[in-house]
Amino acid sequence: MENGKLIALEGIDGSGKSIQAQRLARRLKEEGIACYATMEPTARPIGSLIRQVLRGEMQMEPRVFATLFAADRLDHLLNGEDGLAEKVAQGVTVVTDRYYFSSYAYHSVDMPIEQVIQANALSSSILRPALTVFIDVEPGTAMERIKKNRERQELFEKKSRLVQVREKYFEAFAMLKEAEKVVIVDGSGSVDQVAEQIWREVRAVLFGNYLVQ
Fold first, then answer.
1. Which residue from 110, 100, 92, 25 is spatially nearest to 70, judged by alpha carbons?
2. Do residues 67 and 119 touch, judged by C-beta distance below 8 A?
3. Cα gap 32→42, rounded to integer Å
4. Are 10 and 134 in contact (CB under 8 A)?
5. 140 CA to centre of own chain
6. β-pairing verdict for 93-97 and 131-136
């Protein structure tokens, strides 16, 4: 059986990546591809603890918080119920809303990026994305979307923080350009326009540009 692929969608909060991950998974299924859509933090025990911190229900030192994300990611990959590594090995294409580049970007604001990359080295060795799609939007635009669509803001959802996170994403992309396949998509257009940009990039990885229209 041929292995499936892992496609990771990344972006700052308010970039629209969650709806694009859903759209991409639906498109893949329409094309007859076995697909599983997921997200990080997960809904499993470690992920649930992370979400409590994001909602401001408890405090956590940044290095501890970064380590929780790395642990949740390993559980995401290896748990016996719906681990991503096994799904990909069984031929399923996985679309994940966030993966380890999120940790590189968000946590390296508070600690050296090299430490964050090292903390996630086991995950990257187990399952590296066939493609990481970064949906790029200006932090000001992202904050407008967040304020419009959410009842309350989470821990990292401040413009000053998103400016730093966006910069850290690009720093990580530059550092890992030889190891990772990353494409940057303009996220300022309509949902349909962004979805079409993403599909062009994904189909090139999965099928080659000439096979799927």
1. 100
2. yes
3. 26
4. yes
5. 20
6. unpaired
3-state secondary structure of 95: strand
**β partners of residue 134:** 10, 184
Beta partners for residue 97, in sequence order: 9, 39
Query: CA 82 to CA 49: how far, in whole Å?
Result: 19
Please give the DSSP secondary-structure letter assigned to residue 39: E
Instruction: Give the residues of the chain that fall short of pLDDT 70.
Output: 1, 150-157, 209-213
Yes or no: say if 191 and 19 are a contact pair by the CB < 8 Å rule: yes
Contact indicator for 134, 58 with CB cutoff of 8 Å: no
Peptide bond into 41 cis (omega under 30): yes
How many helices (H) and strands (E) in the chain? 10, 5
Longest C-alpha distance within the chain, in Å? 51
> Residue 60, class by beta-carbon neighbours within 10 Å (0-12 exposed, 13-18 middle, 19+ buried)?
middle
Write out pLDDT tens, residues 21-67.
999 999 999 999 999 999 999 999 999 999 999 998 999 999 999 99
Distance of CA 188 to the CA centre of its chain: 18
